[in-house]
Amino acid sequence: MTDPTHAVPSRRDILHAGKAGLVATALGGASLGAAQETNQAGVPLRPLGKTGEKVSLLGLGGFHSSTAEDERDALRLIQRAVNEGITFLDNCWDYMDGKAEERMGKALAEGNLRDKVFLMTKCCGRTAKDAQSNLEDSLRRLRTDHIDLWQFHEINYDNDPDWIFAPGGALEFALKAKEQGKVRHIGFTGHKHPEIHLKMLSMPYDWASVQMPLNVLDAKFRSFQRQVLPVLNERGIGAIGMKSLGGGGGIVRDAGIPVEDALRYVLSLPISTLVSGIDSERVLDQNLKIVREFKPMPRDEMVALETKYQVAAGDGRHERFKTTQNYDGGVHQKQHGFRA
Question: Domains, the chain, ranges and CATH?
Answer without folding.
Answer: 11-335 (3.20.20.100)
